[in-house]
Amino acid sequence: MIKLEKILFVVVLVVVSLGSVGCVERKLTIGSNPSGALVTLNDVEIGRTPVAVPFTWYGDYDIVLRYETNVGTAEKPMTQRYFLHTNQRISAAPSQWLGIDLLTELVPWTVVDEKTLAFEIPPVPQMTNEELLQRAEELKGQMGR
Known about the structure:
By secondary structure, the chain is an alpha+beta fold.
């Protein structure tokens, strides 16, 4: 009788443990200076910095940050543009390495893997109309027209 109770106890313990297994939450937070830049992650617009999004896989991410601000006056507006296009590699935490990740999925709590990326966005140089026309003529010459 005692042996049956022990077996029943172990079965109930296993069922309860499997029913309460946790999961892994992966979150990527992107910040920038200047703040408020529009973020495109792998060709998908995800919001303005600082922005946090869930992610599924580790590896290379294509990141584009754009920001525009008015640096002029109401009478003479002038737009300053900032732009950065970069690739970043997101590496797996040790808890997500092959083999260990199975154990991480089975623990009865949520494991959080949060990655943070911060970028300094350089300003785009302002071009005068003359410089722009000269550049257009150069490109036109390169095309053979």
